[in-house]
Amino acid sequence: MTLVDAEHKQAIARAFGRAAVGYDRFADVQRASGERLMTLVGMRDGDDVLDAGCGTGYFGRCWQSLGKRVTALDLSAEMLAQAARRQSATRYVLADIECLPLPSCCMDISFSNMALQWCDDFAGALAELYRVTRPGGVIAFCTLVDGTLAELDAAWRQVDGSRRIRQFLSLADIVDVCRGYHAEVRCEPTTCYFPDVLSLMRSVKGVGATWRPQGT
Predict the structure, then answer these.
(1) Is residue 177 within 8 Å of 122, Cβ to Cβ?
(2) What are the entry keywords (predicted)?
């Protein structure tokens, strides 16, 4: 990882760290997407689950309630601390999904809800999840695609012409990466309503999604 990459990842970690204490108050969409993802995974054999991008550990606790051993992994130390306070896992790992400090074939389920969009190398991150998952296991992830927060993006452009919304991968790009795996890709749009732009901004900031391109 280059110095620039390291600084970029540290900035993301700090943004989520600042949001860690109050994160759950704003994470309705994240909970809904994760619950949907767990439904799609269903009951699987195997005891070991990686919660990659665990946040405050909400889904780690869900997996534990199903009798699984959970490894909680996050880029933010503050998020991991919240997860640990809630006893959301068997162990806690401070690391980047793009470079997992885990042995190959050690997990039965690799679960990642609303985290892969923060990876610079989506294909590399998916390859890492594949590497640590045992043959016969499952990788389940939910991410965001191009067009997310399009209304907020348009509003900022009208104000000062700037781009302040992260440019997510297109669905076609994600499908293309997944062609190398036995993958099923679903696109399930979600619409959220806010009374005004400030409420939307509070929600975005409340979950730590405050990435801004260099120079803005």
Answers:
(1) yes
(2) Methyltransferase, Transferase
